[in-house]
Hints:
Elements: E1 5-14, E2 17-24, E3 29-32, E4 35-37, H1 44-56, E5 60-72, H2 79-82, E6 86-96, E7 112-119, E8 128-129, H3 132-138, E9 147-151
Parallel strand pairs: 1-6, 3-8, 5-9
Antiparallel strand pairs: 1-2, 1-4, 2-3, 2-7, 5-6
Amino acid sequence: MNPVRSSAKAIIIDKGKLLAIMHRDEDEIWFSLPGGGQEPGETLVRSLERECLEELGVEVEVGRLRFVREYIGRNHEFAAHDYNDHQLDHFFECVHLGDQSCGLPANPDSNQIGVSWLPIQNLDEYRLYPRVLTGLLMNSHGSPELAYLGDVN
Length: 153
């Protein structure tokens, strides 16, 4: 098994929409939250600021930690590809600095094809990963306390 990878992800909501990274695989378009792996010597906050510049081309203000989830690849639908992966994701509330447009990404992910603002009330119509976030974000009334989500996809 590979070492546990730590990452930071941005929950950016503005005007009832969630900012997501758009990807394409052999099946269809799917979405994830901006963010990525933490580098040695880098705080989670700094990691998230860097990743948002790379993937969105914009600066963000990182707020409070909302969710922590583990992803142990061999336990999920992508085990054939991710069997040895073990990742710990930290999801932070963030504010997109500027308007709803995004700049040019400095270093987009290899399968990133764009960014999109997804309506919160219709998140269940999109293939958003991790899937557990769909229900949490659609049914969020107020600001729940920090939640450890476990090994989920």
